[in-house]
Amino acid sequence: MSAERYLARVPMAWCPGCGNFSIREALAAALDGLGIPPHRVVLVTGIGQAAKMVHYMEVNGFDGLHGRTLAAAAGVKIANRGLVVIAESGDGDIYGEGGNHLLHNIRRNLDITLIVHDNRVYGLTKGQASPTSELGFKTKVQTFGVISEPLRPLALALALGCGFVAQAFSGYRGHAAEVIARAIRHRGLSLVNMLHPCPSWNRVNTFAWYKENTFRLEGTPRDRLEALRLVLTGERLPLGVLYEEEKPSFEDRHPIIRGEPLALRPLRRPEDLSPLLSELA
Amino acid sequence: MDSDEHDEYGRITEDLGIRARMVEKRLRKGEGLAAEISPPLSYPEGDFRGKRVLLGWGSSFGALREAVDLLNSRGGNYGLLHFSELWPLRTPELERAFAEAEEVIAVEANATGQFARLVSQVTGLRVSRAVGRYDGRPFTPEWVAEEVSR
User: Fold this and answer.
1) Residues A116, A92: contact at Cβ < 8 Å?
2) Tens digits of per-residue pLDDT, B32-48?
3) What residues of A are in contact with residue B12 (Cβ under 8 Å)?
4) E strands in B45-146
5) Which residues are paired to A87 by β-bridges?
6) Cβ neighbours of residue A278 closer than 8 Å, sequence gap 6 or more
């Protein structure tokens, strides 16, 4: 088979040179490498340039509300745990609008792969600062530069005990595909922070800037603290899997969802509910 | 969900022709909605000839109906036209009420007569006055009767 089968043949509205094109191909390559047929994949996105991904892929999809990517993805996974659920959106949608969903879905630990396109700027709305923009980053709105500390998604996920924390760069497509594949294989919520340039609105963190300011991890840090030290104190941004830990997922722990996917179980007939209703009488 | 238009497969599109056809399609849904929207209630039953008609909407129904009874028991000649569904705005009952009634008085739980403005925007018909309660408390029949007969 080929990765082509995951790519929808439709006009794409991203700017020339956008990192999203490479991420799309990396995702297709990862799915192809794992041999997951398109009908078993559900791609859930939110709002933003990254969130257009669902329209440009030939898999099942759900395009949700701004910031609610993970909420919708959680619903899909709970309804049918037999499907491969990928939540994908941008740094604004996931780290800004959807911050609370991120915190609590890391705690919940459903088996969902979360890919966050992190270009440190709002692309869809034409260049305002995002939660990951660095201090001092100037935009047409933040004319004197950003005055809020940036969110550090990897440190946040590590501190919350996320079972899979990784970072990749769209410019290294093959490596990005490997990281995505590992994230999909991981059981539980896996975060891939996907660095990528926005040639239209971020003139600071360019393709060349990322090449210069990232480095490929050799192996995986020995524990969570070493991973944390790396992301909090390192000069350059690490690429690769920072932390992986096998632990029970939400589906494993939940007394009802455990077992056969809910969507495949026979529906109870209303008359079968009478023993349950009599308990309430 | 996206700020873009979508095509018949649910995929986003920036095609101008599809955009215009989708807008027209959604507008056509308004015709179906208008056909099945609830008509307003008239109280008391029958026509509004010679009556002062209170025009209300939403949860004020009970208080307005009692206010009509109260006013009529004191020798007044009042009626009520009450809407439970506002959009698409049903106009035949409004046109009939304005044609028959002595006057139409909007009674609304807001300061600006929002529904009276909507009626005027759609039909060109203007209420003689708008009585608003906006102190944060709900309508009572006594309050309405006093304000209306002021």
Assistant:
1) no
2) 999 999 999 999 999 99
3) 13, 52, 55, 63
4) 52-57, 78-83, 103-108, 129-132
5) A44, A114
6) none
Same domain, B69 and B114: yes
A13 inside 8 A of chain B by CB: yes
Helix (H) and strand (E) counts in chain B: 5, 7
Domain containing B91 equals 41-148
List domains and CATH numbers for chain A.
3-280 (3.40.50.970)
User: Is A13 within 8 Å of B14 when comparing Cβ atoms?
Assistant: yes
- Are B25 and B68 within one domain? no
CATH number at residue B54: 3.40.50.920
For the stretch A55-87, pLDDT in tens is 999 999 999 999 999 999 999 999 999 999 999
Per-residue tokens: A90 = 């941008």
User: A103 CB near a chain B CB, below 8 Å?
Assistant: no
Instruction: Render pLDDT for A145-193 as a digit per residue (tens, 0 to 9).
Output: 999 999 999 999 999 999 999 999 999 999 999 999 999 999 999 999 9
User: Which residue type sits at B64?
Assistant: L
Same domain, B62 and B136: yes
Residues B58, B96: one domain?
yes
CA atoms within 13 A on the CB side of A99: 11
Phi, psi of A96 (to 5 degrees): -95, -90
Q: Are residues B31 and B63 in the same domain?
A: no
| Mean pLDDT of the region A102-118 | 98
Same domain, B93 and B112: yes
Residues of chain A with Cβ-Cβ distance to B11 below 8 Å are: 8, 10, 55
Q: What is the pLDDT of residues B59-103, one digit of tens each?
A: 999 999 999 999 999 999 999 999 999 999 999 999 999 999 999
Residues B127 and B113 sit within 8 Å (Cβ to Cβ):
yes
The tally of domains found in chain B comes to 2
The whole-number pLDDT of residue B1 equals: 44
Residue B150 has pLDDT above 90, yes or no: no
Asked whether residue B61 falls in the same domain as residue B96, the answer is: yes
A232: tokens are 């909090």
Helix (H) or strand (E) holding A168: strand A164-169
Query: Residue B100: phi, psi to the nearest 5?
Result: -90, -35
